[in-house]
């Protein structure tokens, strides 16, 4: 019992991190109609931008979050203007392959600038809180913060989508592109906002991953598969589904270590994605955005 | 208001529209009728900027708008609706209307973060306008319903509402009566009439329902085989031999005849 609850906690932490990536993937798919393969490397780059900021100014590790998010949002918009905007009118498959190329470019750039060794935000070991329930649970303070901040970001995205004009325009575009265009919804501005949010959340996922473990150049790439699994599980193109999808995948991945070796965790995400695409390709939820 | 000047369009060997000219007068509700395949919808699509014409010109209040894409025409005050209603199905009716007006501060990256007060003010002004539109069209009771759940007729009213949210000068209505029950049809027709007389909107209407056309439209233009064959008030057209011929000869006499 103790072990199950402990894994559940790890699962919620992993789920929070995956959710940050999956919301972005889902929104980009909803608006731009392509699977953004560079999203994992957006996570990596966001984490490293945060690292650069805190080491330059000697700040505490938590400053990596806002600085990484703002920096990555700006980089995402820049990448869109330089690359994706030019090929917007081509087939989705060309955009998909281009984003794959962009993933390689970003990863190579990260390795060139920061090297391929492991890095971390804070030196030393953090001692977990011990709770005397269920025979003693260990909870790391960092994990509590990750879940709380991820929750706050999800609430912020929700408020943006439902309360602001731009958020409504974004939902309108992912709902009915033709009608959005002829009713004068400013497509390019909606797209810019999509990258700001997608890039910012990707950086949050990257920083969380870095805080939880460490930073290395393929950290985001290895997280990309579960992120996509989460987005597909929730119904790609629907940010709210991505939240549920992220949690399910995260918890399933951690729980699986009860019965199979931990090295197979990504395979669990893969298996869920495949089953989902066969059984219910539209995702868990319909009509939720 | 809208001048259609000698417009032609062929798809391969099919001459869909041939040398059609007429004017949609300011403040009028102009009708466009004709049997299926007469070229009405093609002409509409040309005016709305979806298809470029092979030759001829379209002007809106003297400005040449030939070949200008639909989203730019929207900002110039020319709005169209579709035969099959379009809506943002996963948003509420109220939200469907709120997203329409463009060029507000809230959409600017800088303003949204740093000028909350101004964005708030504009949003509340938009909301007032939305309530007014909902009242006018009498669809207030479904304001919080997802637009995808509306009936066909309610969606057509929502289409009209979308046009009302802009300062539309002219509205192109593609079969506002298609697939709508009688009761709602009366309301749609009344709304068009009131928008025309009270608010000064100009309409150009394609419609197969002759009752709707004769109550609403003056003048009416008749197309057949891509050509304009007659124009005038509906009462006169009913007596016109060529018009009868077109409908009967076209084999689509049913709804149009008498």
From TrEMBL, chain B:
<dbReference type="GO" id="GO:0016887">
    <property type="term" value="F:ATP hydrolysis activity"/>
</dbReference>
<dbReference type="InterPro" id="IPR017871">
    <property type="entry name" value="ABC_transporter-like_CS"/>
</dbReference>
<dbReference type="Pfam" id="PF12399">
    <property type="entry name" value="BCA_ABC_TP_C"/>
</dbReference>
<dbReference type="GO" id="GO:0005524">
    <property type="term" value="F:ATP binding"/>
</dbReference>
<keyword id="KW-0547">Nucleotide-binding</keyword>
<protein>
    <submittedName>
        <fullName>Lipopolysaccharide export system ATP-binding protein LptB</fullName>
        <ecNumber>3.6.3.-</ecNumber>
    </submittedName>
</protein>
<dbReference type="InterPro" id="IPR027417">
    <property type="entry name" value="P-loop_NTPase"/>
</dbReference>
<dbReference type="InterPro" id="IPR003593">
    <property type="entry name" value="AAA+_ATPase"/>
</dbReference>
<dbReference type="GO" id="GO:0005886">
    <property type="term" value="C:plasma membrane"/>
</dbReference>
<keyword id="KW-0378">Hydrolase</keyword>
<keyword id="KW-0067">ATP-binding</keyword>
<feature type="domain" description="ABC transporter">
    <location>
        <begin position="2"/>
        <end position="250"/>
    </location>
</feature>
<dbReference type="Pfam" id="PF00005">
    <property type="entry name" value="ABC_tran"/>
</dbReference>
<keyword id="KW-0813">Transport</keyword>
<dbReference type="InterPro" id="IPR032823">
    <property type="entry name" value="BCA_ABC_TP_C"/>
</dbReference>
<dbReference type="InterPro" id="IPR003439">
    <property type="entry name" value="ABC_transporter-like_ATP-bd"/>
</dbReference>
<dbReference type="InterPro" id="IPR051120">
    <property type="entry name" value="ABC_AA/LPS_Transport"/>
</dbReference>
